[in-house]
Structures are given as C-alpha cells and as structure tokens.
Design goal:
With 689 residues, this protein is mostly helical. It has 3 domains: 22-221 and 656-684; 246-264 and 292-320 and 363-425 and 436-470; 491-647, no CATH class. It is built from 35 helices and 5 strands. It has a 3-stranded antiparallel beta sheet with strand order 1-2-3. It has a two-stranded antiparallel sheet with strand order 4-5. Helix 14 (238-268) runs antiparallel to helix 17 (296-308) and helix 24 (465-485) packs parallel to helix 27. The radius of gyration is 31 Å and the shape is elongated.
C-alpha cells in the first residue's frame, strides 16, 4: 500500500505519482475562493464544511495571498462563509461549533491582514456586507454570549474568548476597530462577570476574560459613552470583584515567582561566585540579566478596576483563600510551551506551593502586597521601555489608591500588619537586607518603603523625571491623609528625609545636564514642600515628639544642601531667563527651612564654644533644638495639605492610548487558536456520532 504524507493542506503519495492530493477541506476552501456559489453543485456544502477539521494556516494564507481586487470578486462567498459560521454556532454538535469559531478567527485575521490600509468599514463590508452587518453581528454576539454563559464545554468557552480577543485586537489601535461598535451595542459584559464569579470558569478562562474586559473598556473611552466603563464602575457583587482580584493576583504572583527563580539562579551560579571574588563591580550587569517580560495587560486590568470601581478597593486588602489554603485542581493542567508572561494566562488561579508563604513567616497575603512586590521588581530598571511603562502604570495605580479614603483607612490600620518583602536593587554601597528581619507593619509602610527605594535608586543620567514627580505626589497624598485623620504612623521617617535630601543634592550636582531636558524646579519645589509639610503639621502626625526633634536635626545636619539649593534658585530667579518664575517659587518655599537653619546653627555653635566641644553628638544637638523652640519664628504656608486629584483624560490620555496599542499588538501576536488539537476535542465531545 502506498504511504501518504500530509503537508500544508496537501496529501502526497510517496509512489511514482508525484501529483499531490489536496485534503477535502482545502478543496472546499478553494471552491469558496471562486466567483461561483459553492452550494450550487453541492447543496450540503456548508453542512459538510463545518464537519471538517479547520486548516487555519491554509485559509489565512489564501486570504492574504489575494489582492484587494481579487478579494472583492469573491466578497459574496466570503460573506456567505461568515454568515454560515454564525449559523453553525447555534448547532447542537460541538465539533461544528468549534470549527465555526476557528474559521471565524481565520476569516477576521485574514481579511484584516489584507485590508490593513483600508478603513474598518471596508472590513465589515468584506466580512458580512453592510446590508446584513447589524443583524449578523447581533447574532454572532448573542451566540458567543450563550456559549460563554452555558454549562457546556470549557474548550468552547476558551475558543469564544479567543475569538473575541481576535476581534478586539485585529487593529493596533482598538479605537479604530469599527467592528467593536457591535460589541458595544451587543454587550457581553455579564458573560465576562459570570466567568469571573465562578471558581471553575475563572480557573480556566479568568485571565482571557480580564484582559478582554480591560481592552473593551479602552475602546473610544474619551470620545463616546463606553457601556463597559459604565457597567464596570457600578459592579458591587463581592464574588465577581473578588474573582477579578484573584485572577490579577495570580498573574502578578506568577511574575514575582518567575523573577525570584531567575534571581536565585543567578545568585547560585558561577556569576555569583565571580562577583564575590572581585567585589560588586558587575552587580548592575548581573541585575540586567534577570529579565522577565512585564505584564502590562493584567496591570491595565488592575488599573481600570481601581480607577473605575470604588468597591474594588476593598478587594485589595482581602486575603485570598487560594493563596493561604492549598487546593488541587480537579483536572490535570496541560503542559504548554514556555512563553513570555503577559501573553498567556497562568495555568490556574490556585497559587502553587512555591508561592507559599508570599513573605517569610507570613501565612496570609492580599492583592495589594502582591502588587507592591511586582512594582518593586518592574520599577528597578526603567531603561527598558516596557518596564518604564509598567513602572509608570504602577505609580498611577498607587496614586489612585493614595487618594482613596477607604484605601487609606486600611493602609494605615494598625490591626492589619504584614511583612512585605520588597525587591531591592543591588547597589555597591549597601548590603542586601535580611528578609526575615522585616517587622510586621501597616501596609502604608510598604508603600513608603517602595517610594524611598525608588528615590534612592534612580538618580542617573537618564533621569526619569515623570516617575519621580509621581513618586513624591504619592508620599504627599499619604501625608495629607495622616495630617487630616491625625494618624501617628510608626515609620522610619529618617530614611525618607535622607532620600529626599539626597535627591535635592543630585538635582543641584547635575543642574546643567538636567535643565537641558527637564524643569527640575517643579520636583525641587515638591520635595521642599514635603519638608514644609513635616515642619508645619508634623506635630499632628509624627509618632512622637522626639520624631519632630529628629526632623530638625536632619535639616540642621544637612543644612549645606539647603544652603546650596537656595543659592542656586536665587541665582536663577534673579536672572531674566526661562527658569526665573519656577526658581523663585522654590526660593519662597525655602523660607521656613532657612529660618530653622539660621535660628539653630548659631545656638549650636554657641553651645559648642561654651562647653569647649569641637564636635557635638546627636543627643547634644537635640538638646539645643529642644531648648530653643520657643524663640523660633516660622511663617504659616498655605495649601501644603492640598493636592490636585488624579485625572486620566486630561493628563494621561496619550500614555494610555500608546499602552493599549502595545497590549493589543502583544495579545494578537500571542493568540493561539490551534492549541486544542482535534483529538482532544473529539475525546471531549465523544458523545457525537
């Protein structure tokens, strides 16, 4: 018997006959790609087509091979195929439904690929025809909605979500994808929520559902009323919101775990031994090699949930049972190829044992802790564009959290203490902190630690000004809450003060280089006003009177930096250059800091002279400070505890447009429709005769 080989839709006999034989489905595709109606000669053509295994590669390739004119000639057959696919979605036989879903994916991608330069309207016309578009798309969306909400096959639900993701990401800029108008009119929002609220569906499809929702929310969000934004903002069902939180937490945890594994790999390898031998001179290079692809899609979903839905704020602090209590999935998880995170979903929303405990000696965790750990990793290296975008989005999310009254309440809650082991950038001048020595503290301490860590580690030539501004704003908003609610937080404030003073020192040392690119006075003013906040209101929120004394000690000890800053801004504010106005604002803001320095320095010198001490200890300086408060005169400065609230549309629209574009390209690139082999499907649907 002659052996047959299958390749690229062709069946080739290995006998003397060299003419290849095409498989049946390919022959049927070829009939569609003629100007004749394929059902003329075979009335059962469409019925038979959806019983054949789809050849995605051949169908997409065939569409892409045609030019625009050739495609227009077979438009009626393409429309017919699209309509019959939609009809097949209502069939009882799941194999037909699967084949129809896969065919739709190939059609949408193939037609779009061919029509990249044309408008969305042409694509709609090519796929369904203008006259039937509304009804066809309504039927398609209703069928997908039914399949997603039904009790049936998980494989079908998976393909439905893949088709929807294909539909959404078919253009780089999703707001130019006119097909999405039909997804807005025929909403699948409730179906997405149902997936997120059910543990089984969430485990299988939660990731795709969350990414799909995040993308749909961003369709023309500034130009028209987007129903997905409206609906997401009013969701109050606890199970649904917690489900969404679990999916996001799992994806971020997986990233954290991948990073930790790579970090341990580096530390235990030859490179680590070499570094120990020659000191820390290669530390920066070693760190750059620890690279795990960032997950902007899931971060965007977290942002939209936090930004749009006040009820989601409660989810941030909820401890997840899946994180604290191990359960095993009932069905085995198929092994999938290793792909970059952010392109494929985590295998399950049950966190593996490797994630337990999340931090040393901590048995419970929550989404906020996982997010802070994620942020501490991606914010380490902002040289890479994806990480820069991720770092910026992390800071935007933290900005929204820092402005929320309820979020602040649990951030500062003394009864909610956690050890949060943030990742710290390897630096030559400091030792690696011992993870187990971390104290249990309110979560706001971890947020402040993250801000301090960023301030200390990013003073470099390619200065990330925008991120620094956001970082200082977050600290300011937290201080405003503490002042307003008289929260006395037991935090190592000295670390923050020291970081801020070093930042000012860096701005002055690199004045010429930085001024060529940035208005450094905006940032300097914000830093100086943070000190003014502590000086003016510190007695209401610093933990003890001695903390307030230590603030004065730090200002006096580092007075040279403030003196230098004053000299710099005075010089620029007296010139008629472009920096005159911003520099003069800093000059005025320094009035109380200079008053403190000018008041206490002579007193300290006098004390040293009287007591014949060449260099005073900290306790001696503090004694001078405490005994000379009465004669100090400070000016009351207005608006220190006021801030402008975050506004996406006015300030961040361009950033989100570019971010969503990048996510759309990434999701489309990594969509896999053929992950379900025909054998697996046949096994699942073995009831079909």
């Amino acid at each position: 018997m002659a052996q047959t080989e299958k390749k690229g839709g062709l069946l080739r006999k290995s006998s003397a006959s060299k003419k290849p034989l095409k498989e049946k489905v390919v022959l049927m595709y070829d009939e569609i790609f003629t100007t004749e109606d394929p059902s003329k000669c075979n009335p059962r053509f469409w019925e038979e087509l959806f019983l054949m295994k789809v050849n995605l590669e051949y169908l997409e390739g065939k569409l892409e091979a045609l030019d625009g004119e050739e495609l227009m000639k077979i438009k009626d057959n393409i429309n017919c195929l699209f309509q019959h696919c939609i009809q097949a979605l209502g069939e009882e036989h799941p194999i037909r439904v699967v084949n129809a879903l896969q065919t739709l994916c190939a059609l949408i991608r193939g037609v779009h690929q061919k029509n990249k330069s044309t408008s969305g309207f042409d694509i709609i016309n090519m796929l369904v025809g203008f006259d039937k578009a509304e009804l066809c798309m309504k039927n398609l969306m209703e069928s997908l909605d039914s399949l997603l909400c039904a009790e049936g096959s998980e494989s079908l639900k998976s393909l439905c979500l893949k088709l929807l993701l294909c539909l959404v990401t078919v253009t780089d800029n999703i707001s130019q994808n006119t097909i999405l108008e039909y997804v807005m009119i025929n909403s699948i929002f409730e179906a997405i929520l149902q997936i997120l609220s059910s543990p089984l569906s969430r485990r299988e499809h939660g990731y795709d559902a969350v990414v799909l929702l995040a993308l749909l929310v961003n369709y023309r969000k500034y130009e028209s009323v987007n129903p997905y934004i409206v609906k997401l903002s009013i969701v109050d069902d606890e199970a649904t919101l917690n489900g969404m939180g679990l999916v996001i937490a799992q994806a971020l945890s997986e990233y954290n775990r991948q990073y930790k594994d790579k970090e341990e790999e580096h530390q235990s390898g030859f490179f680590s031994a070499l570094t120990n031998m020659v000191g820390s001179m290669f530390i920066a290079d070693a760190d750059e090699k620890i690279s795990v692809q960032t997950n902007e899609a899931i971060l965007l979903a977290l942002y939209e949930a936090v930004h749009l839905n006040r009820n989601f704020i409660t989810v941030l602090a909820q401890s997840h049972p899946e994180m604290g209590l191990m359960t095993t999935p009932t069905s085995p998880i198929p092994v999938t190829p290793v792909t970059p995170l952010g392109t494929t979903p985590p295998s399950s929303d049950v966190i593996s044992s490797a994630e337990l405990p999340l931090d040393a000696d901590v048995q419970t965790s929550n989404l906020l802790i996982t997010f802070l750990k994620y942020s501490s990793i991606v914010m380490q290296d902002t040289k890479d564009e994806h990480r820069l975008h991720s770092g910026k989005l992390c800071l935007i999310i933290l900005t929204c959290i820092a402005e929320d009254q309820y979020a602040n309440a649990f951030l500062h809650d003394d009864n909610m203490n956690f050890r949060v082991n943030l990742h710290r950038m390897p630096m030559r001048h400091r030792k690696k902190a011992a993870d187990k020595n971390l104290p249990c503290r309110p979560l706001v301490c971890a947020v402040l630690d993250l801000m301090v860590e960023f301030i200390v580690t990013h003073m470099m030539k390619e200065f990330p000004m925008d991120l620094y501004v956001r970082c200082i704003q977050i600290v300011h908003k937290l201080l405003c809450y503490q002042k307003k609610c008289r929260v006395r937080l037991h935090y190592t404030w000295r670390e923050l003060w020291s970081a801020l003073i070093n930042l000012l020192k860096f701005l002055m040392s690199n004045e010429t280089v930085l001024l060529a690119k940035h208005n450094i006075f905006t940032l300097a003013l914000m830093v100086v006003n943070l000190f003014n906040m502590f000086i003016t209101y510190g007695d209401t929120f610093l933990p003890t009177p001695s903390s307030y004394d230590e603030l004065y000690y730090e200002i006096i000890r580092m007075h040279q930096n403030f003196d230098n800053l004053y000299s710099m801004v005075l010089r620029l504010s007296t010139n008629a250059g472009q920096w005159k106005e911003p520099a003069s604002k800093v000059t005025h803001a320094l009035v109380n800091i200079r008053a403190i320095i000018n008041h206490f320095n002579p007193k300290i010198e006098s004390y040293a002279a009287v007591n014949h001490i060449s260099q005073l200890s900290e306790d001696q300086v503090l004694e001078v400070v405490r005994s000379n408060y009465d004669t100090l005169t400070l000016k009351l400065q207005d608006g220190l505890d006021q801030y402008e609230r975050y506004s996406e549309q006015h300030k961040e629209a361009a950033f989100f447009k570019e971010l969503v574009r990048s996510i759309s390209i990434n999701v489309r690139k990594n969509l896999a429709f053929n992950t379900l082999s025909q054998e697996l499907l046949l096994k699942e649907f073995s009831t079909i005769s």
